[in-house]
Description:
By secondary structure, the protein is of the alpha+beta class. Helices cover 56% and strands 10% of the residues. The longest helix has 51 residues, at 207-257.
Amino acid sequence: MTQHSFSYTTKQELCAIPHDKICCSFAELLGITLLAGRLSRASVKIVTENMYVADRAADLFKIVFDVETKFVDTHGRPQDHGRTQDPPLPEITDKAEIEQILLNFKLITIENKNLIKYRVSLDFLRDECCRAAFLRGVFLGGGTVGSPQKSYQLEIFTHYFGLADDLQKFAAGLDLNFKRVTHKGGQLLYIKESEQIIDMLTFTGAVNASMELMNVKIEKEIRNDLNRAVNAENANLDKTINASMRLLLDIKKIEETIGISALPQELSEVAKIRKRRTDLSIAGIGKLLTPPLSKSGVSHRLKKISEIARGL
């Protein structure tokens, strides 16, 4: 079974969203066409590697413009849909239908029908449902999202500088702060903050993908917290072991020079127990003393022993 990427399955989920309102279908198809459309006066072709996006675009052309698409390969040759490794691409070649689409999307004007402008008209995006549909179409047409197991990154690529401007401003109006770089001769918009990616996926309707990303994020945070706690505990353990070893060396030094019995009775008693029972904690040593002594009291005596050893 083929293992599809997180980006692929996210688009698959988005393509399963029902076409409830014609205005939203129009806005979504506009997003797909701007980002994945190869447009000319002779052809409107949606270029995508995702078969679900190809089918979605074909359905939307039928719903919005009552236009039937034919499926071709990247070279424009007819294909039998579903019987090829690469997804067939929906294409429209009827000149009247192309003009209808481009005019309605405001990509051309009546005054200048030969100049196709890849720009966003906000007139279509006044309602929140249409803004969500448009952003969904933009992602379907030119977006990718990395596996949350590896990194947090959502990208949208376009060859058109003006379109990148429009998309960045549009997203900012939704509190989505895309950064931008020039990449492979085009413009790459990207987000690396997990919360922003979750917000965008949720807004566009990819609820399952959003939940998966959120769960992975929580798991990573728990794992990181646990690692920090273990590292801190190991560091404290190392300190304890080092302190214990230094104390044993101090006691040995005293034993080989003046002898443990030369120490004051309260110190020699502690030194003998420490030497005999290296496994005991400071509190454990205190319990064996007569009378028993608190942890701070034992620590004070051990400090005195070390000071005497350094003096030797």
